Amino acid sequence: MDSVVSDAVGVTPLVVEPEEELKSWQTDRTRAPAATKIVVAGGFGVGKTTLVTAVSEITPLQTEALMTEASEATDDLSATPGKLTTTVAMDFGRMTLDDDLVLYLFGTPGQQRFWFMWDDLVRGAIGAVVLADTRRLKDCFPALDYFESCGMPYVVAVNHFDGSELFEPQDVREALSVPTHVPVMIMDARRRISVIETLLALVAHALEETPE
Ligand SMILES: Nc1nc2c(ncn2[C@@H]2O[C@H](COP(=O)(O)OP(=O)(O)OP(=O)(O)O)[C@@H](O)[C@H]2O)c(=O)[nH]1
Ligand SMILES: [Mg+2]
């Protein structure tokens, strides 16, 4: 029988749940999980919010606003005709990579008029995923330039949209002039496994670049 605690008349009795079995890493203080911050950047509508949503183990924080006819001239929706909203501040999600490593994912807003927020969003991050779409490669140049100039480790992740031509990572590397030490991969922002592979590549790369 569940034990019931009630010490005052009229107070709803508390049902004490049997104690959840704690895992070793939850009790071993020397193995407290390291929390790290990762930024997901890239051009407008490339799939940043989709990536954070696909992999987050908590309900992601989203700041989506409906797109209206007023932005037709500014925001090119030809590559993503089904897109109805845009991120106006940030996406936030959490992903536990293993017992020792928790990633906090911060998706940036893609529209140029919100780029001023990047400086705040990247503060304290260990690295960034720069998402690219091969149909509009130039849209990721501002993000590449940004992380190159601030010296933050990054990987280039090509979010392959169905129906678009599939390129080899080497072709993308050459087209974007990405240095050889920076990982370039083809992935699908909708698929959790694919996103995890991308995040693992970023963490490994960030550790190589800044081992301490
Ligand atoms: N087919 C396909 N559609 C995708 C993929 N990734 C995202 N989408 C769709 O593309 C659109 C853009 O996705 P978002 O995740 O909102 O893009 P975003 O980069 O966060 O956009 P902004 O925040 O407005 O810059 C949405 O309609 C998604 O459903 C993909 O890998 N394949
Ligand atoms: Mg978004």
UniProtKB/TrEMBL annotation:
Give a yes or no for keyword Flavoprotein in this entry: no
Keywords, comma-separated and alphabetical: ATP-binding, GTP-binding, Hydrolase, Nucleotide-binding
**GO MF annotation terms:** ATP binding; GTP binding; hydrolase activity
Pfam families on file: ATP_bind_1
InterPro entries, from UniProt?
A: Gliding_Motility_GTPase (IPR052705), Gpn (IPR004130), P-loop_NTPase (IPR027417)
Q: Give the UniProt family note.
A: Belongs to the GPN-loop GTPase family.
PANTHER family from the xrefs? Answer: ATP/GTP-BINDING PROTEIN-RELATED (PTHR42708), GLIDING MOTILITY PROTEIN MGLA (PTHR42708:SF1)
This chain belongs to the protein called ATP-binding protein
UniProt organism field: Streptomyces shenzhenensis
